[in-house]
Amino acid sequence: MISNSQYLEALLKNDTKIILAIYKNNFYKVKSFVLNNKGQEVDAEDVFQKALLQLAVRYKKEKFVINSSFDIYFFTVCKNLWRRELNKSKIKVTKDGVMELRDENEDIAMAILEQKRWELFSESLKLLSENCRLVLKLYFSKSSYSDIVEKLKYNSETVARQRVFKCKTKLKEIIKKDKRFKALHKL
Predict the structure, then answer these.
(1) What start and end residues bound the annotated signal peptide (predicted)?
(2) What per-residue confidence (pLDDT) applies to 105?
(3) CA distance 147 to 100
(4) How many domains does the chain have?
(5) CA 113 → CA 27, 67, 118, 122, 158, distances in Å?
(6) What is the pLDDT of residue 47?
């Protein structure tokens, strides 16, 4: 079995065998996600390539550690890149004409920054109690307060709202105390 660091090293060394394994294990998931979210197969291919490039560039610059499986991490990078593409396409045309598209290096840098923010958020979430993680998972997946009451056996929607508020507040505190927060917050 290939370790996370071996995957990252393979990207730097352009190891065809391991890169093909990454394609084999991950492309169908990325393609499915993109197709289900207003994209086409060519978009999935572009996102996949950008994700590989993003990971290689970031790993070359700073030898970071992936704390989940490589496949889960890679899929998250791809999802974030596709969401970013969807958001960019919304703002390309303005009343003054077409906005200038960002250069590729700036785009990679912004994607890396967003990935680092996502990592900080995910790591901070893990520091919460199991109950808070569950409450926020339901909240972030847009479950209604009545669903939260039902699933977590709370007494009322007011209790659910208070619990969501307290858990979100605790999560914000954890994120803001992290030494990475200031650097990631500036842009």
Answers:
(1) none
(2) 63
(3) 44
(4) 2
(5) 23, 17, 9, 14, 36
(6) 93
Residue at token pair 């912004």: 110
- Strand, coil or helix: what is 66? coil
Residue 122 shares a structural domain with residue 66:
yes
**Average pLDDT of each block of 10 consecutive residues along the chain (187 residues)?**
88 90 93 92 92 88 84 90 79 48 62 77 88 89 89 89 90 86 70
Tell whether 91 and 171 lie within a shared domain.
no
Within this chain, do residues 159 and 81 fall inside the same structural domain, yes or no?
no
- Tell me the H-state helices in 62-144: 70-90, 104-126, 130-140
| The domain boundary residue, chosen from 104, 126, 148 | 126
Contact by Cβ (8 Å): 121, 175: yes
Contact 55, 65 (CB under 8 A): no
CA distance linking residue 45 with residue 30, whole number of Å: 9
Residues of the domain holding 143: 128-187
pTM over 0.70: no
Is 43 in contact with 34 (CB distance < 8 Å)? yes
> pLDDT, tens digit, for every residue of 31-54?
999 999 999 999 999 999 999 988
186, 142: one domain: yes
Type of residue numbered 35: L
